[in-house]
Amino acid sequence: xxxxxxxxxxxxxxxxxxxxxxxxxxxxxxxxxxxxxxxxxxxxxxxxxxxxxxxxxxxxxxxxxxxxxxxxxxxxxxxxxxxxxxxxxxxxxxxxxxxxxxxxxxxxxxxxxxxxxxxxxxxxxxxxxxxxxxxxxxxxxxxxxxxxxxxxxxxxxxxxxxxxxxxxxxxxxxxxxxxxxxxxxxxxxxxxxxxxxxxxxxxxxxxxxxxxxxxxxxxxxxxxxxxxxxxxxxxxxxxxxxxxxxxxxxxxxxxxxxxxxxxxxxxxxxxxxxxxxxxxxxxxxxxxxxxxxxxxxxxxxxxxxxxxxxxxxxx
Amino acid sequence: xxxxxxxxxxxxxxxxxxxxxxxxxxxxxxxxxxxxxxxxxxxxxxxxxxxxxxxxxxxxxxxxxxxxxxxxxxxxxxxxxxxxxxxxxxxxxxxxxxxxxxxxxxxxxxxxxxxxxxxxxxxxxxxxxxxxxxxxxxxxxxxxxxxxxxxx
Lengths: 315, 152
Description:
The complex is a heterodimer of chains A (315) and B (152). Chain A is of the alpha/beta class and 315 residues long. Chain A is 35% helix and 15% strand. Chain A folds into 2 domains: 9-127 and 288-303, Rossmann fold; 132-285, Rossmann fold (3-Layer(aba) Sandwich), CATH 3.40.50.1370. Chain A contains 10 helices and 9 strands. In chain A, the strands form 2 sheets. Chain A has a 5-stranded parallel beta sheet with strand order 7-6-5-8-9, covered by helices on one side. Chain A has a 4-stranded parallel beta sheet with strand order 2-1-3-4, sandwiched between helices. Chain A starts with 13 loop residues before the first helix and ends in a 12-residue tail after the last helix. Chain B is globular, with a radius of gyration of 16 Å. The longest helix of chain B is centred in the middle third of the chain and has 10 residues, at 68-77. In chain B, the strands form 2 sheets. A 5-stranded antiparallel beta sheet of chain B has the order 2-3-1-4-5, with helices on one face. A 4-stranded antiparallel beta sheet of chain B has the order 6-7-8-9, with helices on one face. In chain B, strand 2 (42-50) and strand 3 (54-62) form a beta hairpin. Chain B folds into 2 domains: 3-96, Aspartate carbamoyltransferase regulatory subunit, N-terminal domain (Alpha-Beta Plaits, 2-Layer Sandwich), CATH 3.30.70.140; 102-149, SH3 type barrels, CATH 2.30.30. Classes of the chains: A alpha/beta (315), B mainly beta (152). The interface between A and B is medium-sized, with 23 and 20 residues. Chain B: GO terms for molecular function: metal ion binding; transferase activity. Chain B: It holds the Pfam family PyrI_C. Chain B: Involved in allosteric regulation of aspartate carbamoyltransferase.
């Protein structure tokens, strides 16, 4: 991957993705070989909206590479609450760190940040836009269980505002994958994502009912439908109920189906699914570590081409 | 065009925007930010017969020459338009609009949650795509409603 930043999944080619995932596999196989690979470097965690797992996952991945992390803290206690712009904030933090991980409530925030700094920026979620590092760990999970070609993937839930969905759908177009999108009409994929999918000639089908496709799926990627997307609470409960799965729902699915979820889940996947062989979401979350290690390793290496690589990475 | 067909008189100085798609003249004025309050002389011909377009609109604006960024945005709603700059009743410059690769600082993003709609010191930037424009920051696509988002 010869990228300076990771901002959207649309920037990633198949080669880019496979290079990171190969490296993630190597990291998972021999984490000790990567332990002090980036000692002396500093990663800034800039989270302008709440995050638990993404923040901790990047923090942990960095530390396992020997990287120190500095954390902006909560927005309420930072200079942002005094009205400082994002552009100024990242320009200042650039002087403190060798790379930035940014989460922000506005779409396009990571693009703007990357325009203002010369260190690598990783988009850890920009509003309802993109979340490409999540996509890399999603792809790693799919690849380790099914491979990444000749696949049928169903993506269900809030497809309109779900940033993990937008990134995953784009990235999957690099592979031989049939994509099925299952959602209520009001939460269909946004026009911009459909535009990108059609541009690549991807096979895309949209459905309102999971039953239409469940028998054909290798992977079912479930996302949460959020209450705040509905003006009426009764309408929310009615719609959300239709996109909830449990062990009974999966009776119709092939035995090898993987159920994935970016987490946190609320009640869209019933706990009884956890005990089935379909459940992959905790494995998926754990994959955040080797994948984000591989990603940070790659970006820092690109940012410093003279660095002594020291390790032969199995590609 | 013979005298008895002449609908609006020649202008001394300014811009004539010809071959605008029929019905788009008022959007052209919107792009130029002209609503009459500036005191400029403005003549509009709508649905005038045209060999090339069948029906076309013409806009004549006195004492105002278009900037490149205005012409760029104009091309998005009036791709066939020709721009004539007039000085002392003579056409001193005649050009067809060409679709730019991108437009910067002229359109506002319709996505209220786009970073360009916050207090950030950033100009909007849209890539010109097949039948519209696309925000470089949030990827939102703007098509038929481009004229509603002009910010010049």
